[in-house]
Amino acid sequence: MGQVKQRLKYSSILEGGVDMPSKIEWTDSADQWLSGVWRITILRPCQNTGGLFFPIGKPPIGTCTYATESCLQHCHALVDKHNGYDEETRIPESEKWRIYSWVMSHSADQVASQFMSDLEGLQTPVLHWFASGDCPPGDETHIIAIMGLLPAWIGQVAYTRSRPLWVRNKNIITLTVESEDEMTEPGRYAIPDYKTEITYIKRPDRKIRAGVCAPYYTHADPEEGLPEHYLSCRACWRYNSGCFDRRMED
């Protein structure tokens, strides 16, 4: 918890102060993380999934260690950049730090159990890792352990810029890169086109494309006749398309 509190301190300084509720008492005990009557839910609604929102920006402001300048400039989770994109992204950065601290200070078993409970409450079987933010260096083992504890009925989707995280579970995780030149080894990649706001999902070792994901509409691979639908990660999970296209798995 010391590292978490230090990051909160830095975030407060660089962002001009975070809006921390007065009834929170930070302690080194994960079991005493919350006090008083204030309570949060870890997963939030996000495109028919339960989204895990971590703080945005490069450390110490956020968790996007591997973010590029283009990524930070065009990120759809930035409310000030995309004011009307999605009300679900209007989560204060201070609250995202609380979510991050809870996930990283509790055991993988506790987090997996909480995720299952949250998904039942949201009435969705799909978990969206890093709906904002990313996996910082040093957190990979904990994140992978949580992924491995979740049952098969939960569909997991994860976009990351962290290659160290990606190489540990390429069937769940998609590595976001800026161009095909960075697709240097087998696995599933996402290449964003910032002008058209479309993300292409590809594998360098296979002559297939899982389709493209766009802000409002998901396009199928025309050669395979995969279904098209309005943007919904849950629909892609049901149709085995997009991020859940099994042809892209190892």
Short structural description:
This protein has 250 residues and is an alpha/beta fold. 27% of the residues lie in helices and 18% in strands.
Kindly state the number of beta strands: 10
SS content category: alpha/beta
Instruction: Describe the global form.
Output: globular
* Average pLDDT reading: 78
Helix residue percentage: 25-40%
The number of helical runs is 7
Please report the distance between the alpha carbons of the first and last residues: 36 Å
- Rg on CA atoms, Å: 18 Å
Major β-sheet strand ordering: 1-2-3-4-5-6-7-8-9-10
Number of domains: 2
Order of helices and strands: HEEHHHEHEHEEEEEEH
**Residue share in β-strands:** 15-25%
pLDDT under 50 segments (min length 5)? 1-38
Main sheet specs:
10 strands, mixed
What report would you give on this structure?
By secondary structure, this protein is of the alpha/beta class. The chain has 2 domains: 1-13 and 33-176, no CATH class; 191-250, no CATH class. The chain has 7 helices and 10 strands. It has helices at 2-14, 69-74, 93-105, 108-122, 140-149, 163-166, 233-239, and strands at 44-46, 49-53, 126-132, 155-160, 173-176, 189-193, 198-202, 209-213, 217-219, 229-230. Strands 1-2-3-4-5-6-7-8-9-10 form a 10-stranded mixed beta sheet, with helices on both faces. A hairpin with a 2-residue loop joins strand 1 and strand 2. Helix 4 crosses helix 5. The chain is globular and about 45 Å long. The N and C termini lie far apart (36 Å). 35% of the residues are buried. Mean pLDDT is 78; it is low at 1-38.
